[in-house]
Amino acid sequence: MTKPLLLAVIEIGGYPNFRPLYERAGFRVIVESRMRKAMSIIKKEKPAVIVAEFNFQSDFRDRTSSLESMMSVVERLPDTQVIVFYEREYAHQFERLLAVHSFHRVFTFPVHEQELLECVTALARS
Prior knowledge:
This protein is α/β, with parallel strands linked by helices. Helix content is 38%, strand content 21%. Strands 2-1-3-4-5 form a 5-stranded parallel β-sheet, sandwiched between helices.
């Protein structure tokens, strides 16, 4: 049986490498640092889970972040679950995204590894 795919989109990072955690939970993992490439992978591979960062970008006129662009692709994949990491200081901007899109789970930084492991393990089993 093939392991489900988890796509980790790490545009900025600055937190631990969770790839071993995702693999321990039972996923095959692809890590991508460019959102444009990540969206191509999403269309082609249709991952079971996507873990991405919300990085508020004030220079965008019509969007809050590249995560918003990614969600326009993901919304066509009803079986794909999305987990988002975000900085508490950008909660107000993130709320705008939450008003339009739903996520399986959101984590504020710092992400607690045990909580993340429990979350992705449950998704790997579903």
